[in-house]
UniProtKB/TrEMBL annotation:
It comes from the Bacteria. This is Spore coat protein A.
């Protein structure tokens, strides 16, 4: 339904037409392609140096679909998985070897970016990494095709499922959609001691949605207005797992670990197994939970991660599916027997996790999430504190202090809010009186305080802020002073203009 309304009224340059209509992904035979498992680059030993080159490649999304032009951080559709250790710095040279023209409809009306900028610009951001500001991938730190940038990641942080993606001003939703994403795992001794499934039994699952034309090319919808092609959200029918449409994966009847990441522009996944067996979540965005959480269903917003264990040991010879909603997206074919590799078990506890006491916060910031009809400039804008990205910085947290941020969602969508540099904990959610807030500018709470779900009790860097609620998080600003940003991770919202700077003051 939403797709229909998002379709352009006028033909955009890449719009499906009579010669290249939309591919009906649901009509393709499911589970014909094996799940690809991304490679791990070695680099040089400590300090590890890696060179990651962005390039245009061809990708087979399905046996029966012609190759798709896309962009990647490597020679294959999945960017290399970077594996690192806590406190062992990694140096990455990001090389922009992309063509100089974008193949998706570029929107020059966003962020006041103007028409004078070169068409392809890029800057890599490691989402969830604690890094000095000059290496964080600030949106204006982009560089054009033919150039590169070397960044040093100190990684003074605990084991976690991080990822990297493009963050170039006004373009990152298209660069990410074109394929510029990858997984970045940090490991530490706490994780080692748990003896979790590893090697062939630890598998990344990178999920995203894409639309294609019948000739297999990526399609990104625009509004149909050539001056303001921006659309408020983009969701598509084609769900890719590790770059394939509805792949299958051969597993042994044993315990597996899956590192699940949602790289979609706007889509939330509601994940479950079709045999209703619980999945055991052991970690979230910023690493391990305190104890494993069993759940039959969970929602994963754009940019959120889940570290999952799935036990296939009682399913020898059977076939089960991972699904989102009622749609099966991945088929597990369980073998009759296990290989001789040692078996793993589910740990009882994972790590000590101290809840940050509310009393340690020295400041509370009120952050409103707003939606505006702005007829002079754009048909619609999504804002934070009613401010645009380019307006002067208003938030200046002090280094080594703790703050509470209250995200007051006055819109009708759930926004996955992400804060760079830091990890945080969610305190609670409450419903507020919208009318009271608009008329008296006072926050009146209605109804009971909602405690975070058990799988939200660990460290987070992206938090779902539901409509009509105040979502409170507690943050210690540690690491480095300097300019960072926070934004909604629905990339269409972020682009217009749900993104704001903040500056950590030494
Ligand atoms: Cu996933 Cu500003 O980042
Ligand atoms: Cu980030
Ligand atoms: Cu949003």
């Amino acid at each position: 339904e939403h797709m229909q309304s998002a379709m352009p009224a006028r033909m955009a340059p890449n719009a499906p037409d009579a010669k290249h209509p939309m591919l009906h992904v649901l009509e393709l035979p499911p589970f014909v392609d094996p799940l690809p498992v991304p490679s791990v680059p070695m680099g040089t030993p400590s300090p590890r140096k890696l060179r990651i080159t962005m390039r245009e490649i061809q990708s087979k999304i399905h046996r029966d679909v012609p190759p798709t032009r896309m962009w990647s951080y490597g020679p294959t559709p999945l960017g290399p998985v970077i594996e690192a250790r806590s406190d062992h710095p990694v140096e990455i040279t990001w090389v922009n070897h992309l063509p100089s023209k974008h193949f998706l409809p570029v929107d020059f009306s966003l962020h006041g970016s103007g028409r004078d900028l070169p068409e392809v610009r890029t800057v890599a951001h490691v989402h969830g990494a604690k890094v000095p500001t000059q290496y964080d991938g600030y949106p204006t730190d982009w560089f054009p095709s033919g150039q590169s940038k070397t960044c040093r990641y100190p990684l003074q942080q605990e084991s976690a499922t991080l990822w990297y993606h493009d963050h170039a001003m006004g373009l990152n939703r298209l660069n990410t959609y074109a394929g510029l994403t990858g997984l970045f795992l940090i490991r530490d001794q706490v994780e080692d001691a748990l003896n979790l499934p590893s090697g062939p039994f630890e598998i990344p699952l990178i999920l995203c949605d894409r639309n294609f034309t019948t000739d297999g090319q990526l399609f990104y919808a625009t509004s149909g207005d050539p001056d303001h092609p921006w659309i408020p959200e983009f969701t598509a029918d084609g769900i890719l797992i590790n770059s394939k449409l509805r792949p299958f994966f051969n597993v042994e009847p044993r315990l597996y670990r899956f590192r699940v990441l949602n790289t979609s522009n706007s889509r939330f996944f509601g994940l479950a197994l079709d045999n209703h067996q619980p999945m055991i979540q052991i970690g979230s965005d910023q690493g391990l939970l305190a104890t494993p959480v069993e759940q039959k269903f969970f929602a994963l917003a754009p940019a959120e991660r889940a570290d999952l264990l799935i036990d296939f040991s009682h399913l020898a010879g059977q076939t089960i599916h991972l699904r989102t909603g009622a749609f099966d997206i991945l088929q597990f074919r369980v073998a009759n027997q296990t290989s001789s590799a040692p078996l793993h078990s589910i740990p009882k506890t994972l790590r000590t996790l101290h809840r940050t006491p509310e009393s340690s916060a020295t400041l509370t910031r009120t952050i409103t999430l707003n939606e505006h009809q702005d007829r002079l400039q754009n048909p619609m804008v999504m804002l934070i504190n009613n401010k645009h990205w380019h307006e002067p910085t208003t938030e200046f947290p002090k280094l080594n202090t703790t703050e509470i941020w209250e995200f007051i969602n006055q819109t009708e969508d759930t926004h996955p809010m992400h804060i760079h540099l830091v990890r945080f904990q969610i305190l609670d959610r409450r419903t507020f009186d919208q009318f009271e807030l608009m008329t008296n500018k006072k926050l009146r709470f209605r109804g009971p305080v909602e405690a975070p779900a058990p799988n939200e009790m660990g460290w987070k860097d992206t938090i779902q802020c539901p409509a009509g609620q105040v979502t409170r998080v507690i943050i210690r600003f540690e690491g480095y002073p300097g300019k960072y940003l926070y934004h909604c991770h629905i990339l269409e919202h972020e682009a217009n203009d749900m993104m704001r700077p903040f500056e950590v003051i030494a």
